[in-house]
Each structure stands twice: as structure tokens, then as C-alpha cells.
Amino acid sequence: MTGPIEVMIADDEHLIRTAVAALLRLEDDIDVVAEAASGTELIALWDRRAQEGLPPAVAVIDLQMPGPDGIDTAAELLRRTPGAATLIVTSHGRPGYLKRALATGVRGFLPKTVPAATLAQVIRTVDGGGRYVDPELAAEAISAGDSPLTAREADVLEFAADGASVEEIAKRAHLSPGTTRNYLSSAMAKLDVGNRYEAVVRARELGWIL
Fold first, then answer.
1. Which of 62, 95, 131, 154 counts the most CB atoms within 10 A of its CB?
2. Beta carbons of 152 and 128 less than 8 angstroms apart
């Protein structure tokens, strides 16, 4: 008889991370073996596990984290361990993120609004070599078409929607103000508009941001 599926969780929000871990530990066939507060921390824990000769765990990764975001973190894990079972959970289910995640090799992509039982089942699916994409997110990705915006450009536009300053947008997106300005300028150029507000309106009309 094989042992439980070992899982590593990365989420910078402590309450959410510990709650998800606690709920998953209620499953007889799942064991949360590590919790990380950032992508950098998860990568370090992943490397330590490999050094100890332990098999790869399933990585459940939050999309929005300081440092490397969830998809970049997954890409690093997959570079170290090709074919590793990684899945992204997110409250930002934009089509651009989904497409980027799948291109990276992520096996699962689902919103944080799913029940714990669904997350547990997706963990079983990706651990067995399968894939899972939330049906609603998949439908949105198909209907939205291909966006010229990078995931980060879409991110800063969404954070700019309420009229926030560059400094506040940078804080929300875990970026420097200078990098944030560059992303905003690039997005405005791609959308052929004159300011942030017009860029947000245009991107929403086209379904490229929420």
C-alpha cells in the first residue's frame, strides 16, 4: 500500500495558508509536509527535500506572492524537476494567467473559491499525472481571445482601476514604482490609449482584465 500524497503549500497570506493546510490534512490520503510564505521559500524547501533524497511532492502555489509569482515559482520547480505536479490557486483568474501557467507546464489551475474537497480531488488528479483547469476559467480564456498584455501588465492595470497611485499599485503588485510605471506605459502603448483610465476601460471591454 502506498503512502499519502505529500503536498507543499505556498501562500503569503498566513491565515489562508494554514487554513488550506488544515483542511487538506483532514483527507486520509493527503499529507501537507511543508508550508511556505513565498515562492523563494518554497523553492528552497523543494531543494532541501531533493537533497534529502525524498520524492517530489505536489506543489500547491498561490498565484500572487512577493518575489517570483506563482507561475514563475512553478517554472523554477519544473526546471529542477521536469514533470513535477504543480497547481496554481488564485483569486485573479484572468485568461492571460491561465495560458501562461499551462505553457509553463502547470497541471492544475483553479480559483480560491473552490471547496476544499475539490482542491483535494485536483491534487489527486495532478499527482496521478492528469490535468485540471477550472471550467469557468477555461471558458473565459477561450472567449477572451489572445491578449497582447503580459500577465504583469494586466495585473497593474487591474490594480489601477480604482484610481490608485503608482506607489499604491506597486505595493499591491509587489513591484517597485519604476517597474510599475514601465508596465503601465507598455500597456497603454499596446492598447493605443492616452492614460491609465482609458487603458483599464479598453482592457475590460476586450475581456483581458476583470
1. 62
2. no
Phi, psi angle pair for 200, to nearest 5°: -60, -45
At residue 144 the predicted structure's pLDDT band, cuts being 50, 70 and 90, is low
d(CA 32, CA 10) in angstroms, rounded, equals 11
For the chain, domains (ranges, CATH) are 5-143 (3.40.50.2300), 151-205 (1.10.10.10)
* Residue scoring higher pLDDT (208 or 152): 152
Residue in 95, 89, 96, 85 with CA at minimum distance from that of residue 136: 95
CA 32/CA 42 separation, integer angstroms: 13
Read out DSSP for 105-117?
T--EEEETTS-HH
Closest residue by Cα to residue 153 from 119, 189, 120? 189
Pairing of the two strands 5-10 and 86-90: unpaired
Estimate to the nearest angstrom the gap between the alpha carbon of 17 and the chain centroid: 14
